[in-house]
Amino acid sequence: MQQVARHVVLKVDLSTFGGSALTGDAAIPKNRSLAEMGDGIPVTYVPARNTVFLSLALAWAESLQATDIFIGVNALDYSGYPDCRPEFIHAFEAMANLGTKIGSEGGRIKINTPLIAMTKAEIIRAGLELGVDYGMTVTCYDVSNNGEACGACDACLLRLKGFAENSATDPVKYRNA
């Protein structure tokens, strides 16, 4: 395994464009059933978010002459986001190989999606086996100013379901648990 060459924090404010309950003032859906979560594209979809993230990662990778990019998209418990599907990832990878110096010189950019075909329960289990401190993570779409998860948005409900299916307790503080 190689060491990290350089770590960069880049601030990207997608709220400038709006179009999502996550980046604007629209209400975050709460207490939806799994069927409702899988029906259509929710108001929490951020327009082109993963396209933006992958584009920035591609620029960074190419500047480092790296050929592997990793993204944590999930196509099973994904709440209907079109940019979490395998088809999107394959299309972006094809574009990356057409539109980069690496690709045009015979190299190959690979977009790696290790979580894409895992359920939330499988993701939680893998993290537990790897020793992930889930108390340091929050997936909530409506987290409070003091870091408490809402316990009712799609992300919280899927996360709690994943922990329950592993007979594990989520260490995150929930204000509505």
Write the topology of this structure.
Layout: H1 34-37, H2 49-64, E1 68-70, H3 86-98, H4 101-104, E2 110-112, H5 120-130, H6 154-164
Helix pairs in contact: 5-6
Description:
It contains six helices and two strands. It has a two-stranded parallel sheet with strand order 1-2. The termini are far apart. The longest helix is centred in the first third of the chain and has 16 residues, at 49-64. The model has no long low-confidence stretch (mean pLDDT 93). The protein folds into two domains: 1-118, Rossmann fold; 119-177, no CATH class. The chain has 177 residues and is mainly alpha-helical.
Question: In a nutshell, what does this entry contain?
Answer:
By secondary structure, this protein is mostly helical. It has helices at 34-37, 49-64, 86-98, 101-104, 120-130, 154-164; strands at 68-70, 110-112.
The poorly predicted ranges are none
Strand order, largest beta sheet: 1-2
What is the helix tally? Answer: 6
Q: In the CATH classification, which architecture of the largest domain applies?
A: 3-Layer(aba) Sandwich
- β-strand amount: under 5%
Overall pLDDT confidence = 93
Q: What structural class do the secondary elements suggest?
A: mainly alpha
Radius of gyration: 18 Å
Gross morphology is globular
Distance between the termini: 40 Å
CATH fold topology of the largest domain? Rossmann fold
The largest pleated sheet is described as: 2 strands, parallel
Order of helices and strands: HHEHHEHH
How much helicity do the residues have?
25-40%
How many separate structural domains? 2
Could you tell me the number of beta strands? Answer: 2
> What's the CATH H-level homologous superfamily of the largest domain?
HUPs
| CATH class division of the largest domain | Alpha Beta
